[in-house]
Write a structure and sequence with these properties.
89% helix, flat, mainly alpha, 64 residues, 2 helices
Length: 64
């Protein structure tokens, strides 16, 4: 029973993370164009900042 719950929780968390990541890639271009009044360069900076944050977070967690 505990193993089945663990598998369910793991798949639920994976689905939740995937869902939130999808929303980020949809909202960032709208945010860059409408709110920041920028273009492709602004979108590139925002997406790059997201990548740098993910990389630095991964390195931090790997060194713990």
């Amino acid at each position: 029973m505990l193993l089945a719950f663990h598998q369910f929780a793991q798949s639920y968390c994976s689905a939740l993370i995937s869902f939130m990541g999808l929303q980020n890639t949809i909202i960032v271009p709208i945010f860059a164009e409408d709110i920041l009044k920028g273009g492709a360069e602004t979108l590139g900076f925002l997406m790059g900042a997201s990548g740098v944050g993910a990389l630095s977070g991964g390195i931090y967690l790997a060194t713990r």
